[in-house]
Each structure stands twice: as C-alpha cells, then as structure tokens.
C-alpha cells in the first residue's frame, strides 16, 4: 500500500494564493498521505509584534521559553488548523497533529557543545502503530513541527526531519514516497539556472556530484537525509516545487533520489 509524505515550506505557507492552489492538488493526491508543514514567517511576525527578539543561527531558530510559546501557537494552532479546515472544505478527511498528540513523535532536547538551541528537539521515536491505524481509517494526517520529550516538555523540531522520520517509521507498513518541496524546481547543476534540474540521482552519481562540487553546499544536507531515508526502507525521495506536486508524484518533474 502506497503512502505519500509531503513536506511544504514557508514559501507556500506565507502565500495564501499559493497555499490554496497547493491544497487543491494535495487533496486530489490518491491513496494514503501525510502533509508536514513548516512555520513560515508568521512566528517571527508575531514575536516581533510582542517585542520578543528572535535569533537565527545557520537558518535555525533559537527557541527560548517565550519563543516556544509562540511557535506552538502559530505552528500547531493557526497554521495547522487553517490547513486542516481548508482540506475539510475540499472533501479531505484531515486530522491535525503535533508529536505530542497520541505520543506520535518522541524527541529529546538537542545538546550542542557550542550552541544552545533552547527548546529544540531531535526525534527519537515515531509511534508507527498509531499513525498506521489512523491512515487505515482514511485520515489524512497534517503534522505541525512540534514534538515532545515524554516528560511534559514541548520541543520545536525541524519539519524536514519530521518528514524523514515519519517516512522511515512507516516504511515497514507502506511503500513510502517522500516528497520535499521547496522554492527550486529540483536539485540544480547550476544554482542560478532553474532549468538545470537533475532528473535522477543515485548514490554513485551523488558522490560524483559532490566530488566535482557541481551542486551547491546548501543542498547536501537535504540529499544526505534523502539517502539516509532510502537506506531505512523509504521507496523513493523526490525534491522539487510544491506548485508542481502532480508532476512530482509521477516523476515528470523535480529530482528523484533512488538507491
């Protein structure tokens, strides 16, 4: 049985028209499906409105206690429930979740010798039996990037990581296709040319691309995660534009990562 796990980022979340068009396509995706969303710029906007200073290091938000309250409200509240409501209007039986709901995703607070990320979580365990049961009830799961440590503490967790861990955790029950959508059309040979999409990358070609420095450094962590997911049983990983979701699912757009 096939399962599509699709991650969308802030470039879609922050644009009402683009989000609406994406949800039209997502609602039409056949079979079992999970949507993992990021937070976009709304959390920063709300924090600034409340006078709470935000700090980013290497694109990652430092999550102090006050910021955790904001991202929980924005990610798990406003954004998640807006998506759920819009999908219900499209006839899609959506269920909004965080990692704390049903003990769905257990994490631990990140430790780093050089940087204190605050209440940021790294995933330890996915409750595959719960999620499988919900999917078999024909529920479409909408995950906000909030997890918990099992001791009452919520944690802000990277949405790409959540998508990957869900894919790995559910790969024993489903044939999982993991789709990472972002602002580019796929993995590019030329970062400045959106038409230079690499259609397919296997491990041998990936090593060649890295050795020749043909792909920009910012893409390497995403590709490393993609190959890690494949080694853990995920069937296929696809990277491309959220606006091209139907084409991504058929392999006619984006970059397909295979073993």
Architecture overview:
The chain has 259 residues and is an alpha/beta fold. The chain has one domain: Carbamate kinase (3-Layer(aba) Sandwich), CATH 3.40.1160. It is built from nine helices and 14 strands. The protein has an eight-stranded mixed beta sheet, with helices on both faces. Strands 3-4 form a two-stranded antiparallel ribbon. Strands 6-7 form a two-stranded antiparallel ribbon. The longest helix is centred in the first third of the chain and has 25 residues, at 65-89. The model has no long low-confidence stretch (mean pLDDT 92).
Could you state the order of secondary-structure elements as H and E?
EHHEHEEHEEEHEEEHEEHHEHE
Architecture (CATH level 2) name: 3-Layer(aba) Sandwich
Number of domains: 1
CATH homology superfamily: Acetylglutamate kinase-like
Helix content: 25-40%
- Number of helices, counting only DSSP H or I runs of 4 residues or more: 9
Mean pLDDT, to the nearest integer, reads 92
CATH class: Alpha Beta
| End-to-end separation | 20 Å
Number of strands: 14
Strand proportion: 15-25%
Q: What structural class do you assign from the helix and strand content?
A: alpha/beta
Sheet with the most strands, sense and barrel status: 8 strands, mixed
- Poorly predicted regions are none
- Our Rg estimate from Cα atoms comes to 18 Å
Sheet with the most strands: spatial strand order: 5-8-2-1-11-13-14-12
The fold-level CATH name is Carbamate kinase
Global outline: globular
């Amino acid at each position: 049985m096939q399962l599509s796990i699709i991650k969308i980022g802030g470039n879609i979340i922050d644009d009402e028209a683009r989000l609406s068009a994406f949800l039209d396509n997502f609602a039409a995706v056949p079979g079992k499906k999970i949507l993992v969303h990021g937070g976009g710029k709304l959390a920063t906007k709300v924090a600034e409105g409340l006078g709470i200073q935000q700090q980013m290091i290497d694109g990652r938000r430092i999550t102090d206690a006050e910021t955790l309250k904001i991202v929980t409200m924005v990610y798990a509240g406003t954004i998640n429930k807006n998506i759920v409501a819009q999908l219900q209007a499209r006839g899609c039986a959506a269920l909004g979740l965080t990692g704390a709901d049903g003990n769905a995703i257990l994490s631990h607070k990140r430790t780093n010798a050089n940087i204190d990320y605050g209440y940021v979580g790294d995933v330890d365990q996915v409750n595959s039996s719960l999620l499988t049961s919900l999917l078999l009830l024909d529920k479409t799961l909408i995950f906000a990037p909030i997890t918990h440590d099992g001791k009452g503490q919520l944690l802000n967790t990277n949405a790409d990581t959540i998508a990957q861990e869900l894919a790995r955790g559910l790969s024993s029950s489903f044939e999982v296709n993991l789709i990472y959508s972002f602002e580019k059309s796929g993995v590019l040979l030329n970062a400045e040319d959106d038409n230079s999409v690499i259609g397919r990358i296997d491990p041998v070609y990936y090593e060649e691309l890295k050795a020749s420095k043909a792909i920009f450094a910012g893409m390497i962590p995403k590709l490393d995660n993609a190959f890690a997911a494949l080694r853990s049983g995920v069937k296929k990983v696809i990277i491309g534009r959220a606006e091209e979701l139907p084409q991504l699912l058929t392999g006619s757009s984006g970059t397909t990562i295979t073993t």
